[in-house]
Design brief:
By secondary structure, this protein is mainly beta. Helix content is about 10%, strand content about 55%. It has a four-stranded antiparallel sheet with strand order 1-8-3-6, with no helix packed on it. It has a four-stranded antiparallel sheet with strand order 2-7-4-5. The N and C termini lie far apart (about 50 Å).
């Protein structure tokens, strides 16, 4: 019941906010941290994006260099669990980042890994307001 109440309040907040006008070309982009996680093995991680636009950064490190581990990071709807995009499918030590854009909502990551240490962070990106011109 708490999850349903949270979802209702989130949807109400999204529906009641004003949509900003599209940004003219050349405007600066700013970001804010939405979450950062690290671990081993498989898990699900949730977060809420108010803009629907964010940057995902991931890194992996083998637990045993003689046996490369596996890592898959899938972005899913936080409400239905529907897969939206495979962000990374990697073997061994590495990393990368991906820009993603969709609607404001609850999201979750499905992390599937074996024999690897991983970290994932998410930054929400948005266009910075312009300064008034004299």
């Amino acid at each position: 019941i708490l999850r349903a109440l949270f979802l209702f309040l989130l949807l109400l907040a999204i529906a009641c906010r004003e949509e900003p006008a599209p940004a003219p070309p050349g405007r600066a982009t700013e970001s804010r941290q939405l979450g950062s996680w690290a671990g081993k093995g498989s898990t699900t991680l949730g977060f809420v994006s108010e803009s629907g636009s964010f940057r995902i950064t991931w890194t992996t490190r083998d637990q045993d260099p003689a046996r490369p581990g596996t890592f898959q990071l899938t972005l899913r709807s936080g409400i239905s669990g529907r897969p939206m995009k495979v962000i990374a499918e990697h073997r061994g030590t590495g990393g990368g980042n991906v820009e993603f854009g969709d609607d404001p909502r609850m999201y979750e990551f499905l992390v599937e890994s074996r024999d690897i240490d991983w970290s994932v962070s998410v930054e929400e990106t948005f266009t910075a307001p312009s300064s008034p011109r004299p």
